[in-house]
Amino acid sequence: MKILVTGGCGYIGSHTVVELLNNNYEVVIIDNLSNSKKEVIDNIKRITGKDVTFYEGNVQDKSLLDKIFKENKIYAVIHFAGFKAVGESVREPLKYYENNLDSTLYLLEKMKEYGCKNFIFSSSATVYGKPDKLPIKEDFPLSTTNPYGTTKLMIEGILKDVYNADKLNITILRYFNPIGAHESGLLGENPNDIPNNLMPYIVKVATGELECLSVFGNDYDTHDGTGVRDYIHVVDLAKGHIKALEHIGGLHYYNLGTGNGYSVLDIVNTFSKVNNVKVNYKITDRRPGDIDACYADSSLAFKELGWKATKGLEEMCKDSYNYVIKNK
Ligand code: NAD
Ligand code: UD1
Fold it and tell me: Could you list the residue range(s) of the whole structural domain that residue 86 is in?
């Protein structure tokens, strides 16, 4: 079976492609390399010993989509391509609405035209806004606090309408906080700019590239006052997509998280311990818009897909560091 993976050179997409190939799917990738590098394709081949078909280009290019659907009988589309930086989305909302929404609309249009019936979408825990209670279940109220999050919520709405009209099979996966990297050290995440997210920032402090981590607030209502999140190993997350594909049919929403909440200081301390490296940090003001705590109830994914995260925090911290050390 051939799977079209949009954004397959990116952080989560590349790990998912490896799992697809290991499960004997054939993979076609479209990626414009706006936030990734072509060498990812070679690394995927090195890890799996298998080939992928790669189209370099934009998902908003309808003629390229025509070419892809004509040249390949696509069984399902897994749609990762999009922009994801929250801060940038506040400064440049139109860039986010255009890329994230248009890419999805054009893909859905072409799937309809070529009779492709199965769609898996990368959504985010950000669609739960500021949850009233924890752990978060799929039927909790939805809201957003920034344009990036709004693109995800709008796309979820579009997908519901398309499901009602066209009876596509649609699975919406809401990711919590993916960290970690492939154990080979060949795939992972290491942004060029100053990172917005916690783990890439910690790694850059550990390697000496950045001086000191700012811990955004220690007066939250959590066990040590610092923000609590549900960190999930990217390989566990990737495996969730295989399970989603195996069970595709109808319209479904699943939280992909571990169900564990770890604080910023839990992460810093575990990272230092398992990698035997010091991480300088200082406590600073809260980051506007942050919430005390956010973690998933992922029992629905276990019940219906048989999926459960298996990798612990120590492995996540080790693999995140290993990737950057190996690719310095
Ligand atoms: P990423 O930036 O590493 O990967 C996205 C890939 O899509 C990149 O390779 C980029 O070059 C490509 N791309 C972007 N726009 C494109 C376009 N118009 N045409 C073709 N290629 C395009 O991001 P990621 O962390 O792998 O995230 C993948 C998806 O998961 C995104 O939709 C993101 O919003 C969602 N998500 C990510 C997180 C996270 O913390 N990483 C959390 C929740 C949801
Ligand atoms: C981010 C995204 C969110 C997305 C989620 C999952 C932002 C504002 N939100 O949220 O849309 O759904 O990832 O991928 O980017 N922290 C520090 N110092 C830092 C960086 C972070 O103390 O330099 C703290 C934060 O205050 C938070 C925790 O670390 O408590 C995690 O932050 P981050 O990695 O940015 O993830 P989220 O805030 O969960």
Answer: 2-181+230-257
Answer whether 263 contacts ligand 2 (Cβ < 6 A).
Answer: no
Backbone φ/ψ region at 217: left (φ over 0), alpha (ψ -120 to 50), beta: left
Look at residue 78 and tell me if it is in a domain.
yes
Q: What total of structural domains would you count in the chain? A: 1
Q: Would you say the C-alpha torsion 85, 267, 218, 208 has a positive or negative sign?
A: negative
Mutate which of 91, 172, 177 for ligand 2? The one with the most ligand atoms within 8 Å of its CB, which is 177
pTM of the model: 0.98
Does residue 81 line the site of ligand 1, with CB under 6 A?
yes
Ligand 1 neighbour 227 (Cβ under 6 A): no
In tens, the pLDDT along 168-220 reads: 999 999 999 999 999 999 999 988 889 999 999 999 999 999 999 999 999 99
